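Entry 14. Structure prediction run on the chain below.
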Amino acid sequence: MGNHEAENRESGLAERLAKLSPEKRELFRQQMATKRLRGSGVVAQSLRECGITHIYGVAGQPTEVVLPACSANNIRPIGVCHQTSAICMALAHNYQAGGLKAVALVSAGPAVSNSITGLLVARDNSWPVIVLGGRRAFFQKFDALSIVSPVTKHAVAVPSTASLREYIHESYRIAVSGRPGPVYLDLHEDVLTRHILPSPHGQAIADQAVQTGTAVSTSDIMRVADALLSARRPALLLGKGVRWTVSTDQLRKLIETLGLPVITSPMGRGFIADDHPLCFNQARAVLQSQADVVLVLGARLNWMFRNGAELSRNAAIFRVDIHLDDDTTAVPTEFIQADAAEFIDRLLQQLGSRHEEVSEPTRRKCIRTWRNTLRMAAATTQRLLKRRMQSQTLPMSPYRMMKEIRDALPDDVICITEGNISMRAAQAVIPALRPASRMDAGTNACMGVGIPFAIGAKLARPDRPVVVITGDYGFSLSAMELEVCMRQAIPIIVVVANNQGNNGATKQRAFFPEKDAELVTMFQPGLEYDRVMTMFGGKGTTVSDPDILKITLQDAIASSSSCCINVLIDPETPLPNAWGEQSKGLGPR
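Output returned:
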């Protein structure tokens, strides 16, 4: 009976083929000869068309099939230990690359909920990334879109295998256009496993122009130029948002044309080098309180600038951004919607046509006086820092630790800082001399990002040394990712500021003053974090003497292999005030 049915089917197919025109029979033959592509392969090919070079993720159903498909399409898969780490690695990779070159992959159910923190980091820092998440029909069934939508720029379910390419290309456009941000693609297991005929390849999406925003108006340019040329104490506030479109040559030409003093957000450092004569991060309090015209580029007046509270209420403040944010500012501002690179180009053109005003002697004299005021304020900060860095106490102070690290670091280092006390000391002591050379806990001060950021940064910039300076609490949140460094040969250096936990002994004593109280906010003394690295096959050492820290770090950098240096510092060092000792000029926050 079975053979008879098969014969009938074959006979019927032959009859239908005989009725086709020669052209349709040839088309049918070609389709039958063409190898069909599985959904996971469509994902990989589409990502490659977007210029993606790396995918970070945890292998799990149903999305794990994407990993070998990516490898077959020359996209390097990086297997990590936690979903948030995967996203943070992709974020740092993209930030260092200056564009969307890496994506993240998570499986279904709890894996999606594990990714929320990474998506939040992406959203709050306005960083582009595509996160591919899995969905299953029964086991681990989960309405991911309702959970991820509040923390993404865009979140959507891909309806079919045939639409994968379209949705991935559109996700790329959304992630990088306007204000960058995270896009989440919900991929059902059926979409990934079904087969379709491959689509003809079009122009690579990464090569296509992406509309960045509203063109800046001539009236806006003239108004800003008028204000800057008439200012006696002008200033530029610079943020990490300039990473995506603005060149350092543009920035330098702007500030040097006007003699314009600059301060930055923490990750905005390096786009104008800290040793540039117009960079005044060590005089930020004086600059903000006395500037009469302020131009804000690539930055939001959020908590990192105290929502503008330190700016004079009499100052004219121009905020140039691609998108109006909802941050509440303490001072009135004028918002100009524009791409920062286009705005600078147009402003330089306007200034070039007004050379006499730019060079006017009275204006130049005012600028010199203003810069002298800022130099004196910076010198006061430097004297205070010098006293702190010369401390001979043991365990060593955070500032002495950072001084020894600073003296060991090469100019081209990518330095990633996280923590409370340690991060603020690093911000005050360690300079940023190149673009994108500084990363930290970011806009929402997320802990645990240091090691993941370092892995992504190193894969994006293998030519530069990458050093993480982290508190022991931040280290504890992502230490397992050191296994990834050893397994996939990604050399980074991790320096742990070991003050026995979150804020050392100060918070423990404030919350639990009893002499015999349990350790709640404080870790056990004497933990050897370097042994985590040696357990995975890397190098590790504990340092308590500041005089050998510099040599130890120099040796680690020269070795070109992963290393963890566990530095014992004073657990009694108090946490700086909520604004990072901003009033003393000791940090960019």
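Confidence is low (pLDDT under 50) at residues 578-585.
Filed with the rest of this week's runs.
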